[in-house]
Design a protein that fits this description.
The protein has six helices and no strands. It is mostly helical.
Length: 185
C-alpha cells in the first residue's frame, strides 16, 4: 500500500516538475516575442467576450419571463460587439487594453496608499505602503509611455507571469521530491 502511495506521489511530483519546466519555457518564449504574445492575449480576450456575449443571449432567452429581457440582450450585444471590435481592429484593442491596465494600476496604487496610511499604527503597514508605491509607479510608467509600450507590454507581463508560475511549480515539485526521498526507508 505504501509503495502505491509513494508511486502516485512520485508521478504527481514528476508531472508538476514537467509542467513547471514547460511553463517556464513558454514564459521565456512569450517574453522573447512580446508583440506576438500581446496580440495573442488581445485575440483571446476578444474570443472570450464573444463567447460570453452569446452565453448571455442564451441566458436572456431562458429567463425572459423574469424581466429585464431587453437589458440582458443589450448587455450581451455589448459583449459581442466589443469582442468583434477587438477582432477587427486588434491594434486599437491592444492600445485600449494597455491604457486600461495603466489606469487600473494607478487606481489600485492610490487605494493601496490610502489603505497603508489607514493601517499605519499596525505592525508591518509599510509592506502595504511599498506595494502601493510600486503599483502606482508601474501604472505611471504605463501611462507615460503609452502608446509606445502597448505592442510589447501585455505580452511581456503575461510572459513574466507564466515564468513565475513555472518556477513555482518546479520549486514545489523539487520540494515534494526531497520530502518523498526523506520519507522512503
Amino acid at each position: 500500500m505504501t509503495s502505491d502511495v509513494s508511486r502516485d506521489t512520485n508521478k504527481n511530483v514528476n508531472g508538476s516538475l514537467i509542467s513547471g519546466v514547460i511553463l517556464s519555457v513558454l514564459g521565456i518564449i512569450a517574453i522573447a516575442a512580446p508583440n506576438f504574445t500581446t496580440l495573442f492575449a488581445e485575440t483571446w480576450i476578444a474570443a472570450i467576450l464573444i463567447f460570453a456575449g452569446f452565453t448571455k443571449v442564451v441566458y436572456a432567452t431562458q429567463t425572459r419571463e423574469r424581466g429585464g429581457f431587453i437589458w440582458k440582450l443589450l448587455l450581451s450585444g455589448l459583449y459581442i460587439a466589443t469582442g468583434i471590435m477587438l477582432f477587427i481592429s486588434p491594434y486599437t484593442g491592444v492600445l485600449t487594453l494597455t491604457l486600461l491596465l495603466g489606469t487600473f494600476l494607478l487606481t489600485e496604487g492610490t487605494f493601496e496608499l490610502i489603505l497603508a496610511f489607514k493601517l499605519r499604527p499596525q505592525e508591518n503597514w509599510t509592506w502595504i505602503l511599498a506595494n502601493g508605491i510600486i503599483t502606482l509607479v508601474l501604472g505611471a510608467i504605463i501611462w507615460f509611455q503609452w502608446p509606445f509600450n502597448a505592442p510589447w507590454l501585455i505580452g511581456t507581463l503575461v510572459g513574466v507571469s507564466i515564468i513565475f508560475t513555472g518556477i513555482s511549480r518546479v520549486m514545489l515539485a523539487l520540494s515534494g521530491r526531497s520530502t518523498l526521498t526523506a520519507e522512503l526507508p
